[in-house]
C-alpha cells in the first residue's frame, strides 16, 4: 500500500497493493493504521448511470463534518477536493484525481474540504467511508462550476447531469465560512 500527499495538505491518494494470478486478484483496501487519525463509522455506495454525472461539491458543518475515503468499485470518476479552510494558504484551491475500479486507487478527503466527482464511465459505483453520519441539517455544498474555483471538469456545463440540489448550491464567495485553518 502506498499513501501519497497531494498539493493540498491533508488530501491523500491511497494506492492499495493488488495481488493477482490466474484466478483474479486480492487486495486489502483499508486498514485503520493507514489513516490512524480517522474513525470511520459509516460506508456509503452510489451508482451513477450516465457519463458526465456530477455529485458535489459537498461537505457537512461541525459537529457532523466528515472525513471521506473514496474509491470506485465499478467504472471511473474524476474525484475533486476543494480547500474550504479560511486562512489556509491553499484556500479555494482544488485537486483532482482519476479513480478507477481497475486499480482501486482511493482519495482521502479530510474535514475542511468540499468533495465532488464526475463520472467517466456509465454505471459507475462509488464506495466511500465517512467519519460522521449524514446530517440533513448540516449538509452544505459549493456550486460545482463556480468560476472562481476554475475546476477543470471533464464535461461541458450544459452536458453535466446534476441533482436539483446541486444546481442551487452557492458559490464559494457566498458560502458561510465554517472551517478555519489550524483549528
UniProtKB/TrEMBL annotation:
Keywords: Isomerase
Main enzyme class: isomerase
GO cellular component, one term: cytosol
Gene Ontology BP annotations: dTDP-rhamnose biosynthetic process; polysaccharide biosynthetic process
Domain of life of the native organism: Bacteria
Biochemical pathway: Carbohydrate biosynthesis; dTDP-L-rhamnose biosynthesis
Signal peptide: none
Summary of the function given for this chain in its UniProt record: Catalyzes the epimerization of the C3' and C5'positions of dTDP-6-deoxy-D-xylo-4-hexulose, forming dTDP-6-deoxy-L-lyxo-4-hexulose.
NCBIfam families per UniProt: rmlC (TIGR01221)
The protein, known as: dTDP-4-dehydrorhamnose 3,5-epimerase
Organism: Aliidongia dinghuensis
